[in-house]
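To the team - nicotinamide-adenine-dinucleotide complex, inputs and output below.
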Amino acid sequence: MKKLRVANIGLKFGMSHIEGALSYGAEIAAICDCNEDNLRFAGERYSIPSDKWHTDYMDIVNDDSIDIVTVAVPDQLHIKMSCDLLRSGKNVLCEKPLALTRQDISDIIKAADESSSKFMVGQICRFTPAFEEAKKIIDAGTIGEIYFAESEYAHDYMDLVDTWRSDPDRHGVIGGGCHAVDLLRWLVGDPEEVFAYGMHKLLPSVEYDDATIAVMKFGNNKAGKVFVSTGCKRDYTMRTVIYGTKGTIICDNTSPTMTLFETDENGRTKEAETIKVELNNHNAAKEFDVFADAILNNKPVITDAREGAKTVEVCLSIIESSKTGKIVRPNYNF
Ligand SMILES: NC(=O)c1ccc[n+]([C@@H]2O[C@H](COP(=O)([O-])OP(=O)(O)OC[C@H]3O[C@@H](n4cnc5c(N)ncnc54)[C@H](O)[C@@H]3O)[C@@H](O)[C@H]2O)c1
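Output:
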């Protein structure tokens, strides 16, 4: 089988994409970072010849020998780079969040629709072992019908306030909260209505709220809740609880175990079962495998541009509700 030629743009978190591509057996054909120290560090670490190091991503756009490009630059740059890469015929795996605005959403959907290449947004929580296991349990019907689910993204950004992460357009609900929103969409479905409150106590120099709580109504008598805190005083967590008519799942991306409650034949709750799961918060290897499989075997990409857009649309609706005090109905007509 042809060895896939991969280029990686943005080499901090983006180093995990290099690891994912290497574990698949792909060739790292080029790397790019506008920061020469980061470029050199990654180039030397992965023994990539220095003539394959670039500071301008247009060198990657213009290299027709490359099959896949991973994009892990600040969120504000995702759309322009991804659109340029798609137009040059590259398959693109872009970091979350897909976009920051509705204009960005329409630009990337147009570029993806007009391209014969594949596009994937890296909603990596869909490959986190605990969340994959939760999805399997739900799909098997073990916990019955879901009536409520909650997820959270609680991460302390205190040391990141002087970076692109504090740009007002890069609200914490989109930047980090998109993980929890995407997880609920994947496990429960698309919310029809959202209502949110924002709080601002932890990161005073950042313009956007540093904590937001959103409740949401799904179809078929189901509700959900997402909590996002970008200044919380605790370890990173995405604790997620799914309540069904026949059982309950409690899981997290930062815990090596998850808890499953099931009911007996009389509907009474049995003793909790503790399930061990691999602790792999950023499963870049599985993410790359899934994308490579979609490309080589012409399969649909599950987290394509429209799927990434739906998650961003819910995040934008949450932010709008927290500002206006009104219920917002996400508009999924892309
Ligand atoms: N999936 C996850 O859980 C997860 C975790 C962390 C970060 N991320 C995402 O990954 C992306 C990168 O995050 P990070 O933490 O590595 O940020 P970072 O700021 O630490 O690193 C960004 C890198 O991109 C480079 N860069 C910036 N502008 C560039 C340009 N125009 N051309 C080439 N290189 C450029 C920078 O020099 C830097 O090396 C973001 O979109 C972020 O949201 C995702």
